[in-house]
Amino acid sequence: MAAVTTCVRARGRSISLDTERQLWAASAGFCERPECMQYLFHAGDNGKVVTLGQLAHVVAASPGGPRADPAADEQLLAAFDNLIVLCPTCHYVVDHAEEEYPVEVLSRWKRTRRERVRSALHVRKCNSRAELRDELTRLLQFNNAIFRAYGPHSATSDDPLTDAAEVWRREAVEKMVPTNRHIVELLELNRDLLTPAEQEVAADYRVHSDAFEARHVFGVLSASAPRFPDAMNHLLEEDA
User: Per-residue pLDDT tens for 110-157?
Assistant: First the structure.
């Protein structure tokens, strides 16, 4: 897969891989300018995937760039909240007509996309820990069923009459990745119902979800990718 277009290493331009993954997940793979919504991946006939999107700064990384703030903290410039996923055309437009696209407008685009993703996933605010637990259990059981049926240790994984690896990848991309996103958004939206320890488990799950998506969607393989945290299966079991 072609590399994601990111800025060179300089002031506020060293964007971590975890932040990149979070940005792509939040954008759902589309340009975040509401009037555009261009899909940012192109799959060729040879199976190669080309990334069309770019990670644009809300507040410029350089002191003289669009929407610049020379006093801005360098680490915050490369943080999730200061980056937005755009197609090359929209990136050019917002940076060359910055008076029409101030910080508030780009930040609103990000918030709107987040709300739309949550709506599309039917993520809802729960009224109690028990209600949240029921919803979480339903989603985890669905993903676990997919893993048992098609995963690397399933009964079909060694079947020579099936293209087991391709079937597993398809099921992971089309079903497990969206469910992972749903779970991450569900726990974030209902963060107030979690204890501090449970919030740590939710953070571990987000890291696992990002790595899982990076592997199956983007082909990024890592021996250090975190496995599913077992503590997720026991989240919300006790009263807060």
Answer: 998 888 887 777 888 999 999 999 999 999 999 999 999 999 888 877
Q: What stretch of H or E contains 6?
A: none
Q: Give helix 17-27 / helix 196-216 axis angle, nearest 10°.
A: 80
User: Is 0.70 topped by the overall pTM?
Assistant: no
> Which string of DSSP letters, residue by residue, matches 71-124?
TS-HHHHTSGGGEEEE-HHHHHHHHHSTTTS-HHHHHHHHHHHHHHHHHHTT--
Say which amino acid occupies 67: R
Nearest to 87 by CA among 139, 142, 41, 135: 41
- Name the residue type at position 201: V
Q: List Cβ neighbours of 93 (8 Å cut-off, separation of 6 or more).
A: 101
Decide: 58 and 119 in contact? Cβ < 8 Å.
no
Q: In whole angstroms, give the CA distance from residue 156 to residue 150.
A: 7
Contacts of 83 (CB under 8 A, 6+ apart): 15, 19, 23, 55, 56, 57, 58
Distances (CA, A) of 13 to 60, 61, 76, 117: 9, 6, 10, 27
What residues are paired with 49 via a beta bridge? 43
How far is residue 94's CA from residue 86's CA, in Å, rounded to a whole number?
10
Quick one: pLDDT at residue 121? Answer: 76
Angle, vertex CA 1, rays to CA 32 and CA 106, nearest 5? 15
